Amino acid sequence: MSAPVAVAPEPLIRVRELSKTFGSNRALDRVSLEIYPAEVVALLGANGAGKSTLVKILAGSQNADAGEILVEGQPRHFSSPLSARRVGIVAVHQQINEGIAPGLSVAENLLLDELCKPDANFWLNRKRLLERAASIAAGLGLSLPLEQPIEHLGQAERQLVVLARAFALQPRLLILDEPTAALSDAEAQRLFGLIDTLRSRGVAILYISHRLSDLQRVADRAIVLRDGRLAGEFSARQLPEAVHAMLGQALAAHVYTPQVAGREVLKLSAIKVLPRSKAFDLTLHENEVVVLTGLLGAGKTEIAEVLFGLRSLAEGRVQLAGVDWQPGSPRQAIRSGVFYAAEDRASHSLVPDFSLRRTLTLPFLERFTRGGFIRNRAEAAAVEAQVAALGIKTAGIDVPMTALSGGNQQKVVLGRWLLGEGRVLILDEPFQGVDVRARREIGQLLRESAKGRATLVICADVDEALEIADRILLVRDHAVVAEYPRAGLNRAELVAALAGSDVTEHSPHATPRSRASA
Prior knowledge:
The protein has 18 helices and 23 strands. The protein is of the alpha/beta class. The longest helix is centred in the middle third of the chain and has 16 residues, at about 185-200. The chain is globular, with a radius of gyration of 24 Å.
């Protein structure tokens, strides 16, 4: 008796010859692919490759110009995200604020999809609403302030809210676009565990990330887009080849070149960010790039906000170039040469409908103004010089920022602050949503332009921190608790320190910094 013939599984999603054009830009060009149940497919591509367009079409946010989508062999047309969700396709987009409803509480945001149902009156019972929201949060192991307005949460916590809501919908295909962009290594590992659980239940996952370590952890195979076309499919073992296909060339190995610290620029003495936090000292010097890293809620962003005049200092002394200094507002900080690019690029660094030119010169318009009028030629010359120096890919300096890829938008944000005569540059998660090549380019620009200024970068991702830092400072409970010189530090030591309770036991390179522990 012959052995039974194995039957290949049917794909959950089949995309055939999908195309989409925006003006003269062909975002997708006859893309075909298949996604099967119980697998994690990595979708790779440089910024502008067409990934976001493909995701929006699959999730019902945009219509394709040509081609079709089949779900379990049946042609489907999605006129809205709701129509896609009805067949089990749920997407968590890269721009987290697109999935947040301002003015509502954390609990209401967790239950947003259920509250929008015709029988939502059931959920207007406050007690039941909070119980249901707590149940959803517990599914991700989250402890959230359910009754607080969603605006009170940081970017990483908002990302976890959106992820929890997506998991609660019990999707058949879950699309995750840069889901760990705002998460530290510990929160990312928790997410990976949930992905493993979903995969074991037969859920298909389309996972988009520029972090190779993420893909090595979760992906079963990879699909690569380049310039709107399918550039290849690769097994999990072939991820380096997939990156090559994504970029069109091999990525050179990163070489760290230490910088010699110059004069002291910024000195923090016996600082307390919050009344309950420990006091710590911190000194920044010219020429060096210092990274603040730590888990979600550690207080990294709050330290930056103190230095930029967005938050009052609880205790301590700050000196800028040897003089006592404490900005009362961002305007005062900018006038003192302290610049800050916040974590959420879309909400804090970009103005809707602004052009590249105006976005880049906005904080320094007075430089290009005479008699109340902007000197357009001088402004254009300065902008074009920055575009060339930073390698920003654009059709012109007057195109809207929305026409640029994420990596090029981030370069504009960096270029804006390089226009001014800054003494301190603070960047909060500058690599979110940018591809590996753009990350290298931005990191190189940071290091090459660091001469004569102190640079402070907030990075939750360990690999990003190790790539750009001269020193790495570990933040816990709103205080710097340890310092690591980059030379000789390896990834394992830093990850162990992030996860551990005693930083000195994990690494011989660690120097305790908190006054309470020193």
